[in-house]
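<tokenise_the_fold>
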Amino acid sequence: MNTVLVKIKSDSGILPRYETEGSAGMDLRARIDEAIVLEPGCRVLVPTGIYLELPQGYEAQVRARSGLAVKHGIGLVNGIGTIDSDYRGEIKVPMINWGQEPFAINDGDRIAQMVVARYERVEWATADALSETERGAGGFGHTGTE
């Protein structure tokens, strides 16, 4: 397994960590002075007190926690958020309550997960035509229900 060294600053001294041997994501925790009650249909930007210095060629992806989504309808406004390698500000999580009950967020609660991933930069090669494939331009649902 490959590892990458990432500089981190934490207001609380608590660092994101992998909860199991096979975890791809590390939990991010709320770093707030007082509880936030997220009403149904509402959004809030929740601070984590975490700051990163990612190496160039890496990003951190902030993703919803599946338990919060299934049990309470809590997700991320933008689906998956990207933290770029040149960003040095605090990681904040844009949460939304798609559920039917108010949801309380307390200091230290696990609110999202973060995956650090390598990426490639693209250099475009314009073309008048693209190679043919069996799928071709088949889009959503083109393979049927079998």
Residues 68 and 132 are 43 Å apart (CA to CA). The chain has a mean pLDDT of 95.
